Amino acid sequence: MTTEEQLGLRHERRWNHAWALAPFGLLLLTCAVSMVFDPAPVEHRLVTSGIAVGLAVWHWWFVVAHPQWCGRNAWAMALYYVGLLAFTVVLVLRNDAFLLFVPACYVLAFVTLPGWAAYLGVVAANLPWLVLPGTDVRTTLLNLAVVTPLAALIGGMIRAMEREAIRRRETNSELVAMAAENARLHAMLVEQARETGIAEERARMAREIHDTVAQGLTGIVTQLEAVEEPAPLAGPVRDRLDTARRLARTSLVEVRRSIEALRPGPLQDARLGDAVRQTVTTWREQYGVEATFTVTGTPLPVHSEVEVTVLRAAQEALSNVGRHAEARRVDVTLSYMEDVIVLDVRDDGAGFDPSTSDGFGLTALRQRVRALAGSVDFESAPGAGTAISVSVPVIEVER
């Protein structure tokens, strides 16, 4: 709800509260006039004041203490209005000064009674005028024939204005809700366009790397292998060529891994768990090291950025194990929790000092995970293996 709507509601509540309290002031005024100008004995005036107090309590209970009944609980309000007229008739019969209170009955008919019952209440409000002793009925009826329609007209106009105000407030609320929904849809479109642009740029970079650096390294490896074919080479030269060939092959593997990191790869056709399982299987066949993969919790569809981040974390962790750890066993666990996805990669390899781990791969992994408000934790020591835990918040797919 907007600030303007809140101010409008507070203004409306203040007016309703004022209408509910106004009869107390008018009743107090009539009691004062009655006490001052009534020639009756004091006892009579005190009893009249007691009845007025009863009327005040009656009005307080039904209107002030339970404002939600007004215009909604028809039976309670009908009982209230009958009691209001009964109190007013008794007070008028005891002292005609209480005729000053009768106009309040016209107002209260529209404040408390719903629909057409309010107009019946306006007609019934004329009863105190008719029961007053010594009243010229013909003249009174003539006067009431003018006053009653006028009161009904004013009350109907006020009620119509209230309905129009409520209609406008509801319309404004609907417009605000529509604006919020449009803003949400626009944000979704912008996000989808951003993700599409990122995906296209990654695909372009992958093509460029594949067509330039990867092809160049492949050519270098081919040329180095061709050098040995005509004749055996001397020891030092052969060693240098072997070293160059190994470096070229290693660089080619790294370039291909970078190309894979730029493309969604397995996630295009597989869920996250299947993609990580495929990564573990491929790594096990490549390095000949025993590797297990376990999924815990209930898998659920999440945002593509979360899936890519977890998959890249698994690839980076396994790549580091294969290149540096000299491990005999690796355990990979993917855990779906209530609000996070956790990837754990543990090996029994050589380990390292986490305080000195500043390689580009691990730095890039930390940056990627932190971009999603996630965390990366390392537990390792020289000779004690390594445990990497990657935790990423669950960002569910828009439905």
TrEMBL record:
Sorted UniProt keywords: 4Fe-4S, Cytoplasm, Iron, Iron-sulfur, Kinase, Membrane, Metal-binding, Transferase, Transmembrane, Transmembrane helix, Two-component regulatory system
EC nos: 2.7.13.3
EC class: transferase
Gene Ontology CC: cytoplasm; membrane
Cofactor dependency: [4Fe-4S] cluster
Domain Histidine kinase: start-end pairs: 310-396
Annotated Gene3D superfamilies: 1.20.5.1930, Histidine kinase-like ATPase, C-terminal domain
Claim: Iron is one of the keywords in the record: yes
GO function term, MF aspect, one: metal ion binding
Reaction(s) this enzyme catalyzes, per UniProt: ATP + protein L-histidine = ADP + protein N-phospho-L-histidine
InterPro entries for the chain: HATPase_C_sf, HATPase_dom, His_kinase_dom, Sensor_HK_TwoCompSys, Sig_transdc_His_kin-like_C, Sig_transdc_His_kin_sub3_dim/P, Sig_transdc_His_kinase_ChrS
SUPFAM superfamilies the UniProt entry points to: ATPase domain of HSP90 chaperone/DNA topoisomerase II/histidine kinase
Keyword Mitochondrion applies: no
Annotated TM spans: 18-37, 44-62, 74-93, 100-121, 141-160
Database matches in PROSITE patterns: HIS_KIN (PS50109)
Main location: cytoplasm
Pfam families assigned to the protein according to its UniProt record, in alphabetical order: HATPase_c, HisKA_3
Localisation per UniProt entry: Cytoplasm
Function, in words: Member of the two-component regulatory system NreB/NreC involved in the control of dissimilatory nitrate/nitrite reduction in response to oxygen. NreB functions as a direct oxygen sensor histidine kinase which is autophosphorylated, in the absence of oxygen, probably at the conserved histidine residue, and transfers its phosphate group probably to a conserved aspartate residue of NreC. NreB/NreC activates the expression of the nitrate (narGHJI) and nitrite (nir) reductase operons, as well as the putative nitrate transporter gene narT.
Protein name (database record): Oxygen sensor histidine kinase NreB
